[in-house]
Every structure is written in C-alpha cells, then in structure tokens.
Amino acid sequence: MSQKEQIQEDVVLEEQISKEHEIIVYNDEVNTFDHVIETLIQACDHDPIQAEQCTILIHYKGKCAVKSGTYKDLKPRCSKILDEGINAEIV
Is 10 domain-assigned? Predict the structure, then answer.
C-alpha cells in the first residue's frame, strides 16, 4: 500500500470514528415544559432560549434533535436526560 493510499484509509477511518450523532428527544404527556427546559439547560449546555425553542419543537413536532456531537460526548448527556424521565435516544 502506498503512503497516499494509507493516508486516505486513515482519513476514512477517522471520519467513521468521529461521525456526528444526535440526541433526539421525544414528546410525551408527562413532563412539563419547565422540566424539559431545565433538563436541556443542564444536560446539553443550552441557554434558556435555545432550550425553550427545542421544547416547543418537541411539543409540536413530536421530537427534536437537541444536541449533536460524538457518541462519547453525547452518551452521558443522553443518560442525564433519560434519568430525568424524558424519552431520548442517540442516533
């Protein structure tokens, strides 16, 4: 394998490893707007306006991508959201 081929292979591998994922939060009939907003501020480092906008989208659209990043970064954030009784997953 040439050096150029090795570099290309390394780049492809790095892209696969650092692929962006998203936390999707789903609407439910249990959690209040305030609870979801506070959770997004704490778990996703949202500012209050961003958290409120995401919460409105969750309510009216049924779901919203609230944070994107690497799986390693998103996993503990998603766990915090789930621990608060809010339906979420990483995709």
Answer: no
